[in-house]
Design brief:
By secondary structure, the protein is of the alpha/beta class. The protein has one domain (3-245): Alpha-Beta Barrel (TIM Barrel). It has 8 helices and 12 strands. The chain has helices at 15-24, 44-56, 78-93, 112-122, 139-147, 167-176, 193-198, 232-241; strands spanning 3-5, 8-12, 28-31, 63-66, 98-101, 126-129, 153-156, 181-185, 203-206, 209-212, 227-230, 243-245. It has an 8-stranded parallel beta barrel, surrounded by 7 helices. Helix 3 runs parallel beside helix 4 (112-122) and helix 5 (139-147) packs parallel to helix 6. The radius of gyration is 17 Å and the shape is globular. It holds the Pfam family CutC. InterPro entries: CutC-like, CutC-like_dom_sf. It is found in: Cytoplasm. This is PF03932 family protein CutC.
Length: 248
């Protein structure tokens, strides 16, 4: 058994979070907004700003954009699927290195026809299928199907509420994945990273979220006080913990 750092992906919602992840040694970021809803497609300006940041630092394959048109489930109508395709193409034009997508059919199976459209729209970009696979009828079978669909990696908790509960299934998914990368994500704590590496996943994803009240209260118009930030201590601790056992 050899050791190597396990790649860490950080979900970030702003340029400051992306800069922190970059400077701390993260392999890549998943760029999004509204993590409280599970993540939605970020603005064009944010994609462009973070792509420029990565390019200026000479970081390749660093910016992966979540393309998700709304909260809720992953069964999309034709208008929503068309929007995902448009946003994928727009992210590519703005300098993204990859996109993070997913869709289900009404029967609970992965919507492989929709995913094929996403892969086609992505062109040379890396394609990650997100935790829609965990909401599918059979996540392990989903990995086998995605392996043949031109997808680069899958983000998964092993079909469970979090990676600890899904650890056994994550191991089965890693065994079935072949060239498809399995990235563990979903409720990941720093202390979980060694165990995730031990079952053979290829990378670990976490949001490393903290909160701040910078900017003051949102006022009488509604909303919430404070907002999410990327916690530098959590990012650095995750990357330090990633120097553990990993698949040869």
């Amino acid at each position: 058994m050899t050791t190597r750092p396990l790649p860490i992906e950080i979900a970030v919602q702003d340029a400051a979070g992306a800069r922190l992840a970059l400077e701390s040694g993260a392999a890549r970021v998943e760029l999004c907004q509204a993590l409280g809803l599970g993540g939605l497609t970020p603005s064009a300006g944010l994609i462009e700003a973070v792509a420029t940041l990565a390019a200026d630092a000479g970081a390749s394959r660093f910016v992966h954009v979540l393309v998700r048109p709304r909260g809720g489930g992953f069964v999309y109508d034709d208008d929503e699927l068309d929007l995902v395709v448009r946003d994928i193409r727009h992210a590519a034009r703005l300098g993204a290195d990859g996109v993070v997508v997913g869709a289900l059919r009404a029967d609970g199976e992965l919507d492989l026809a929709a995913i094929a459209r996403f892969v086609d729209a992505a062109g040379d970009l890396d394609v990650t299928v997100h935790r829609a696979v965990d909401a599918s009828a059979d996540p392990v079978a989903g990995v086998e199907a995605l392996r043949a669909a031109g997808v680069r990696r899958v983000l998964t908790s092993g079909g469970a509420a979090d990676c600890r509960t899904g650890l056994e299934t994550l191991g089965r998914m890693a065994e079935a994945s072949g060239a498809l990368e399995v990235m563990a994500g979903g409720g990941v704590r720093i202390v979980d990273i060694d165990g995730l590496a031990a079952v053979g996943v290829d990378a670990v994803h976490l949001s490393a979220r903290g909160t701040t009240t910078r900017g003051g209260a949102s006022g009488p118009g509604g909303g919430v006080d404070g907002f999410d930030i990327t916690d530098p201590g959590l990012v650095r601790a995750a990357i330090a913990a990633a120097s553990v056992r990993a698949r040869d």
